[in-house]
Amino acid sequence: MAQSVRGVVSVKRGEPVEVRTIVIPDPGPGEAVVKVQACGVCHTDLHYKQGGINDEFPFLLGHEAAGVVESVGAGVTEVAPGDFVILNWRAVCGQCRACLRGRPWYCFATHNAEQKMTLEDGTELSPALGIGAFAEKTLVAAGQCTKVDTAVSPSVAGLLGCGVMAGIGAAINTGGVTRGDSVAVIGCGGVGAASIMGARLAGARKIIAVDIDQRKLDKAIELGATHAVNGKERDAVEAIRELTEGNGADVVIEAVGRPETYDQAFHARDLAGTVVLVGVPTPDMKLELPLLEVFGRGGSLKSSWYGDCLPSRDFPMLVDLHLQGRLPLDAFVSETISLEDIEAAFDRMHQGDVLRSVVIL
């Protein structure tokens, strides 16, 4: 039987979000209803609200979430009622050309729930990243649920569902950071900070944080950066080269998503070094690079999709590292809030006052 719960809805482009009653259908084949316990406030939700993703309003916002499976539909074997799960927005299909070649983290046919959640009047909602977790309960594809150790706090676990995983994965999975590498991270918001943490986990000998907000640089040092460069005070490329014996970093992670900072990343890497773009650009942005330098500098220019993660592999591993005290995920939680506080949380995030606000339900 369908259920009515509270959820945060963006009704029109740019307007304040509203807490509305939403209707959750019973799970169909391959689907699950999850009782949400915590959900992080991510920049992607703000992009949805601003119309920067698409125009499929109204949106049910929220996607960086953890909770407990309440019920499942026919044919579901991955999870069962009572399982504690992190929600992911790339449910692997197992059948596309990427999956069949043994590269499921690149799955080209990820899927979401077939049924739609609605407002009380029947208006269909577009769930953010196929999840919609600023709600007491949500309907997802069962493959979007990754079971993890119940010992981890939901407020921490949910962060792995998007930004923290994207950053850690950009360093470890996409960038291939390994022992002894030098790493520069340009942009030290939530994703950049997680990239720093990932580089530290991988054994990088030198981790250079670059930002124009001193508060973010101070936090980056807390999370494992060995050096901090304020781009307002000095040229970032020159600073990175100076800190790497004049060579440039082995891996440069661009976590802003702008042509200017990507150009810095390109010129701040060593010969045969790697640039990883994990910051998300807008559709209007263009990039110009000297083709001879692209050839002459060698190495790799990569984009990181969701940290090139495989949730079934990476989420449980990172939770275990956190529980062992090796991955201080709680450092990302700046504040805990309620559903009614999300609009104000967007403002604090936009101003750079927080790494993550986390909604507790």
From TrEMBL:
Location of the Enoyl reductase (ER) domain: 14-359
Q: Which InterPro entries match?
A: ADH-like_C, ADH-like_N, ADH_Zn_CS, ER, GroES-like_sf, MycoS_dep_FDH, NAD(P)-bd_dom_sf
Question: Pfam families per the record?
Answer: ADH_N (PF08240), ADH_zinc_N (PF00107)
Signal sequence range: none
Report the cofactors.
Zn(2+)
Q: Does the keyword NAD apply?
A: yes
Q: Hey, which family's this protein in?
A: Belongs to the zinc-containing alcohol dehydrogenase family.
Task: Identify the PANTHER family for this entry.
Answer: ALCOHOL DEHYDROGENASE, ALCOHOL DEHYDROGENASE CLASS-3
- Name of the featured protein: S-(Hydroxymethyl)mycothiol dehydrogenase
